[in-house]
Design a protein that fits this description.
The protein is mainly beta and about 325 residues long. It folds into 3 domains: about 120 residues, Alpha/Beta hydrolase fold, catalytic domain (Rossmann fold, 3-Layer(aba) Sandwich); about 90 residues, Immunoglobulin-like, CATH 2.60.40.2310; about 110 residues, Jelly Rolls. It is built from 3 helices and 21 strands. The strands form 5 sheets. It has a 6-stranded mixed sheet. Helix 2 packs across helix 3. The relative contact order is 0.17.
């Protein structure tokens, strides 16, 4: 996969076909692979650009880079289009990619021929509440349906001794400071979330989380400088590594905890009410739904689930929902 220097980051991309240019922008944890099938189909008539956004998959985070912004992601997309000579392009953004594409369209109209924005935000996190309101945009006229489900997680624990500060992206391995877990996500599941949290580990430590598919491709974001990380895995098989990068002064080992939530297809722990569950919409509407779990959810429990939106016949978008009542 070729790469190009963009705004201080090395962005990996793929080009297919010839014709008018089309760019696909992935959501928070997505990468170019999410659009592989549709890109192959469009390549007969279009020049199709897919890419790994900075900090995702092969586009590793630049030195000193720890966080991003909508504007930065949009500027990366603009520079990529210009650098490859593909502007102006039709730009399709999915989930959070739709937010990046919208910002690109509004601030850099010279590089965008038209924009297609699909699906709701990637995730909503709620703590200490009994409900949440979500807003969703629609690109059709007809019905909008919504339903929700919450699932409890499972914990796996073990001991990590010492630290490993090697370039893990270049050489995957295990040792006393690195443990590997094999994760299977069944067909029909929305996703399985694997996560580590600072609350489960010693203050001042840095535990990193990596996930790779069976082809060896990195999935999700590259780890940051804290022990609060998660990856949402679509159906398939994955190797998930927990790496003890740093320990506080005086500590030589600690117990780690890896959380996992399988979101669907099994019976949810809590089925929140969604109001309205069905409503009439017009293309371009910004509609609102309220998701309520109330006393059905246990205080202090960590839930992960999904709000699923449809048009009356098919699923058109999902919003991940992390809830700690």
């Amino acid at each position: 996969m070729p790469s190009i220097a963009v705004n201080g980051a090395d962005i990996h991309y793929e080009l297919r076909g010839t014709g008018p240019s089309v760019m696909f922008v992935s959501g928070a944890a997505g990468d170019a692979g999410h659009f592989e099938r549709v890109a192959d189909l469009l390549a007969d008539e279009f020049t199709v650009l897919t890419y790994h956004r900075r900090g995702n998959s092969r586009s590793v985070r630049p030195d000193g880079w720890e966080t991003t912004s909508v504007a930065e992601q949009a500027d990366d997309a603009a520079a990529l289009l210009s650098g490859l000579g593909l502007a102006p392009a039709a730009v399709y953004g999915n989930s959070y990619g739709a937010i990046f594409a919208l910002d690109l369209f509004l601030r850099r109209p010279g590089v965008v021929r038209r924009a297609v924005l699909r699906a709701a935000p990637e995730e909503i996190a709620v703590t200490g509440k009994d409900s949440v309101k979500l807003r969703a945009g629609t690109s059709w006229t007809g019905s909008l349906t919504a339903k929700a489900a919450l699932y409890t997680g499972e914990k796996t624990s073990g001991t990590l001794t010492g630290t490993d500060q090697s370039d893990f992206s270049a050489s995957r391995h295990t040792n006393d400071a690195v443990v590997k877990h094999r994760i299977h996500v069944p067909e029909g599941a929305a996703f399985t979330r694997v996560a580590i949290t600072s609350a489960d580990h010693l203050p001042g430590s840095d535990i990193d989380l990596y996930a790779f598919d069976t082809a060896g491709n990195h999935v999700g974001r590259w780890p940051g400088i804290r022990s609060d990380e998660h990856v949402d895995l679509p159906p398939g098989d994955y190797d998930v590594y927990v790496v003890q990068y740093q320990l506080p002064t005086g500590a030589t080992s600690q117990q780690y905890t890896l959380w996992s939530w399988e979101v669907g297809p099994g019976t949810p722990a809590v089925t929140p009410t969604v109001a309205p569950a069905t409503q009439k919409v017009t293309a371009g509407d910004r509609t609102e739904v309220t998701v309520t779990w109330g006393s059905a959810a246990t205080r202090g429990e960590r839930y992960v689930g999904v709000v699923e939106f449809g048009d009356g016949s098919t699923v058109v978008g999902r919003t991940a929902l992390a809830v700690t009542p």
